[in-house]
Specification:
Blueprint: E1 8-12, H1 22-29, H2 35-43, E2 47-49, E3 52-53, E4 65-69, H3 74-77, E5 90-93, E6 97-102, H4 119-126, E7 151-157, H5 160-171, E8 176-184, E9 191-195, E10 198-200, E11 208-210, E12 219-228, E13 231-238, H6 245-252, H7 266-274, E14 282-290, E15 297-301, H8 306-317
Parallel strand pairs: 7-14
Antiparallel strand pairs: 1-4, 2-3, 2-4, 5-6, 6-7, 8-13, 8-14, 9-12, 10-11, 12-13, 14-15
Helix pairs in contact: 1-2
């Protein structure tokens, strides 16, 4: 099973499953749900094959990509998400998808108790369409996510077929992602790889953590691009897409992101205050992938958000040493 987001679960059909009905296939894959319930989900148009909505008796073929909404999110899907006129910074757009630079402080998806002022609301208004009850329609074509306090590039598909194709590139790890991060401390080596499994924290369910026995594979590469007294600027390349992956990995190796209120420590918080930063210094700065329709290479870069650029300039011009000698 390949779970490439909290809301959509995807499976790739192998040769042994070829010829099976989609309802039988999903009933076998999803152990805790009855076949009749899965049939209702399919009938409600919350499942698709290769980006197309299908009937419950649809026969699968080898290499088909089957996607179904995470059943825990179906109650959310019943809510009507309203378009809202929220300003968007569009970096690229054609008739198939657009790429925006998300500002920090905006949540990507609506959640129980919070159905307004999200990126989904903004996209629905921008594209002048109503949220459909299809698999990707409720998410307004958003096929990946950024944390609320992370800024930077995010892709929005304009229809379900394109959404499924882009989602498959994320799942197959062919999309290159680069983030810019300012972290606590300096490194003896100028580049590295963090390969540690990530799972939900047993202590705090809102947090993720390193979990050798229960976690899922997570790989993060990084390169040091600039060093300061007590902190370092990194280019970070997540090879997998786990929740909070970059933040958890860097915190675990004692280099938490400056300003990260959830995974940082007192020293990283002190430096954030020192340079006038009110959120985590993490920006999705580059995406490279194949155009889902014509196969051409799309490579988009985004400059640092204004607040991060200001904090970085503050760091560079400060005369006194930033590091606490007692640390």
């Amino acid at each position: 099973m390949d779970n490439n987001s909290d809301e959509v679960i995807t499976f790739t059909v192998n040769q042994e499953s070829s010829g099976q009905r989609i309802d039988r296939f999903l009933a076998f894959q999803i152990k805790n749900q009855s076949r009749s319930h899965i049939q209702k989900v399919i009938d409600s148009k919350y499942a698709c094959v290769n980006g197309k909505i299908v009937a419950k008796n649809f026969e699968l073929s080898t290499s088909d990509v089957v996607a179904i909404r995470n059943l825990g999110h179906l109650e959310m899907a019943k809510k009507q998400i309203k378009p809202q006129n929220i300003s968007l910074n569009v970096i690229f757009e054609d008739k198939y998808f657009l790429i925006i630079s998300k500002t920090a402080g905006i949540t990507v998806h609506p959640a129980p108790g919070s159905f307004e002022n999200t990126l989904v609301n903004a996209i629905l208004f921008y594209l002048k369409k109503k949220p459909s009850r299809t698999l990707y329609g409720q998410r307004a074509g958003i096929v990946h996510r950024l944390d609320k306090d992370t800024s930077g590039l995010i892709i929005i598909a304009k229809n379900d077929v394109i959404a499924a194709k882009i989602s498959e590139q994320f799942k197959s790890r062919t999309i290159e992602k680069k983030y810019t991060a300012l972290v606590l401390g300096n490194f003896s080596e100028k580049k590295g790889e963090i390969r540690l499994p990530i799972g939900r924290s047993r202590v705090d369910r809102k947090k993720m953590g390193i979990s050798i026995d229960r976690g899922r594979e997570a790989v993060t590469d990084f390169v040091v691009t600039e060093e300061f007294e007590g902190c370092s600027l990194l280019d970070v390349f997540p090879k997998t897409g786990r929740t909070h992956q970059i933040r958890v990995h860097l915190s675990y190796i004692d280099h938490p992101i400056i300003g990260d209120k959830q995974y940082g420590n007192k020293e990283s918080e002190r430096i954030a205050r020192y340079i006038g930063l009110n959120r985590q210094f993490l920006h999705a700065s580059k995406l490279k992938f194949l155009h889902p329709e014509n196969g051409k290479v799309i490579e988009i870069e985004d400059k640092l958000a204004d607040d991060l650029n200001s904090a970085l300039n503050n760091l560079k011009v400060k005369k006194e040493k930033i590091i606490n000698k007692k640390r």
